[in-house]
Design brief:
Length: 184
């Protein structure tokens, strides 16, 4: 058990207060223990881009708002800011290949990165939405808040859809996982 970044009685940790670098490393290790869903964030138009992300969640139902967190260094950061919108494809257990593809920095940039996948254009934003995803959203950028080395983008939900009953793709312990089949 750890408390405030150090083990009881200092076991397993150097003497003295933890450094910012050590706390960041411990945070990374700790967050590996938190299972999250996997999404692919997309933008369309002149700023077409896609990126795998697990920092996504619901913010509010009234008004309908969601959020995603994107590193300042990511190409998606400038794409969302420039486009003023984003799409979200929530990935299913059978879509790990898409999560890996949109996380691969070697894939093509711009519209060309979508040549290798099946997608449809979002009716409200033009953002690519991945065909076969169990759920999707289209969002207008409503707010952007600085959060350290990331920006928290808050999107007003313009449209959404889901195919209930599909198993999700999860990220846990630094890798992708599938949930055991649902029981009726």
């Amino acid at each position: 058990m750890t408390v405030n970044g150090s083990a009881p009685n200092g076991a397993g940790h150097p003497a003295g207060p933890p450094t910012a670098q050590r706390i960041a490393q411990r945070l990374r290790e700790t967050m590996r223990e938190f299972a999250t869903g996997i999404t692919v964030l997309t933008t369309g138009g002149d700023h077409t881009h896609g990126m795998t992300a697990n920092a996504f969640g619901s913010v509010s139902l009234d008004p309908p708002l969601v959020m995603c967190c994107v590193a300042h260094s990511a190409a998606m950061h400038a794409a969302i800011g420039g486009a003023g919108h984003f799409g979200v494809s929530i990935l299913g257990a059978d879509q790990e290949h898409l999560a890996r593809y949109f996380a691969d920095r070697r894939r093509p940039r711009g519209r060309a990165q979508f040549d290798a996948v099946r997608w449809r254009r979002g009716a409200h934003t033009g953002a690519p939405l991945l065909v076969g995803s169990p759920a999707w959203l289209e969002c207008r950028l409503a707010h952007a808040h600085e959060g350290g080395d990331h920006t928290i983008f808050v999107g007003e939900v313009l449209a959404t859809g889901a195919e209930p009953g599909r198993d999700p793709l999860l990220f846990f312990g630094g890798d992708y996982h599938r949930v055991a089949a649902r029981t009726a």
